[in-house]
Amino acid sequence: MQRIILSIDGMTCSACSNGLEKYLNKQNGIYNASVNLVMASATIDYNEKILDISKLETFVKKAGFKSLGEFKEIKFEAKSKTEKIKLIIFTILAIILMYISMGHMLNLPSIPYLDPHNHIYPYMLTLLLLTISFLIYGFDIIKNGYKNLIHKTPNMDTLVGIGVITSFLYSLYNMYLVFKGNHNAAMNLYFESSAIVIYFIKLGRFIDGVSKDKTKEAIQKLVTITPNKAIIKKNGEYKEVTLDEIKKDDIVVCKAGEKIAVDGEITLGKAHFDDSFITGESKPVNKTIGAKVLAGSLNYDGYIEYQAEKIGKDSTISEIVRLVIEASNTKAPISKMADKVSGIFVPVVILIAIITLILYLLITKDLNESLITFVTILVVACPCSLGLATPLAIVVSSGLCAKEGILVKKSEILENVQKVDTIIFDKTGTLTYGKLKFSKVINYSNLSDQKLLQLVSSLEVKSNHPISKAFEDYMFENNVNRLEVSSFENIPGFGIKGIVEDKEIMLGNSKLLDRYNIENTHTYDENDLSSNGNSIIYVIKNNEIIALIGANDIIRENVQNVINELQKQGITTIMLTGDNEKTASKIAKELGITIVYSNVVPSEKAKVIKKLKEENKNVMMCGDGINDSPALSLSDIGVSIHGATDIAMDSSDVILTQNNLNSILKLINISKKTFKIIKQNLFWAFFYNLIMIPVAIGILKPIGITVTPMIASMAMVFSSFTVILNTLRLKN
After folding, report:
1. Is the dihedral of CA 716, 720, 726, 729 positive or negative?
2. Which structural domains are found in the chain, ordered by start?
């Protein structure tokens, strides 16, 4: 299965995106397609053996839209000068048209030779020419409406197109009657209605476009964070290249004050780096040979050379952008509901308009009034605000999350986070920094402490567990040479093993002893280490404990405040760890966590979550290691933190790039506000249509309240503008 994101041109409302999505999902070889109105894109999972990009683009074309090709980079361009100039010109023309057609009704001074009473033919021809110019200006609307009608996916453009053309043709008919001698027919000209409806639709879309672009600012900042060019070193020569020219394993140069171009590993030099855009760490980080550098990070004070590892789409920052785009392209459950409604809304409105037209003709026998009511219903019911209600809020909140270092993989997560009532935390590397330091080594072997630690460290540094950093630091600080390790094996939830200097060594927690039926004759030392808050590493050779190593961890900054705030919100907090009971209980007590599961293996972590879900709990799991991945997958929402293993990040729904659990509070807050805004948007969109359609039908005519096509188009723009302004409140 392949996935591609295509940029789509021609979508104007939720009925467009919904229709395209339905059409794509019907095609053979497409597993799933999700279309995003605000981002103007389609994410498609397809069978690469049956389909290719050109065939997918053909499907898009057949559905009445245009593919602008595969998404490569995000470009947010301000509205072109040409578009602005066109809008200004047609604003002036709209004022002139309204003055000519309606000025005499308001007793305004008439324009020479354009007075409808004395110069009827120039008057009609001027209105006709001005209206034709507006029809050309809005030809894309009429064309899209027709295409969507043909493909049985009628949308907002269909409503407008039918209304505008009906009004225009009826006006042409009356113009013909005037030329035939019936001058009274001049009062039934509605050229201005066709023109002004198009004008307001265009004005509304211009405002929508500007507002939508503003919602993408956070993503734009991510895209522009990397430099455009870099210097590579090849055969002793230096050459300036673009990012696209950098290949994997190239040696790239970065001087003080410059940004890292691609992800890589330092091969020469050292410097302090600002990685705050990824990690949230405000202090510069000192990095030297062997350290990883991230595209976009700023080199403060040194000269380095680094080997390119992840380039282009594979870089960390590109991955972040991809996740944000894909999140905004997925649909929250509430969005799917809105899509279903809008999918049937347009055909129903057309039906209502036709029925009203027939009833008016039968009752009033007035073709003029019947057609105007028909056009007004079509225009006033355009579901533009309904189409913006959910996707605009999702894009704003996705960008907001990205700005706060919270990467949400699916938009439905933004809806579901606010339902969470139970949060489970792994201990090491999640509640704590995982930056362990040796506090005590109890050696039962005939090896020296230095030799023992060299053997253990050489094996441990091959692990991804946070505790391995303590051994890595020890080797670096004490200039200890790393020994060769063979037959390395990770035992999730228990520990690791491997052969070092022909000795099979196993390292792990107390569960490792049970797994291999190893007798523990050192409980006194074990209890002493545990009572002092140490995590204990058991060193085993030939099925015998040869050492106990105690390591202390540091609780993350602000974790206690986060736990307190979660509990104030009525959210149950639980610690789930493979560490021993005493160490886990000591840290839990310090943090105010009352429910603790210790000495648990990955399968047991998953069982705890399964049990909670059976009790109808909405569970969030926050972890960082390989042993957390089953639990992250099983939970309603899996959250991995910065520095987590690849498998943990793949298993999670949310990635916190900043080393601060405050991000969980921010995520919950954003989720609650997003859901609230979406509900408000949907309310106003539905409320608008529920109120305006009956008014357009004429239910209030007995008390003198009527709506014309022009007023209907203004009301539609106002409805969309209300939704946009309400959504942009999320930014505050």
Report:
1. negative
2. 2-70 (3.30.70.100), 227-314 (2.70.150.10), 415-429+557-657 (3.40.50.1000), 437-552 (3.40.1110.10)
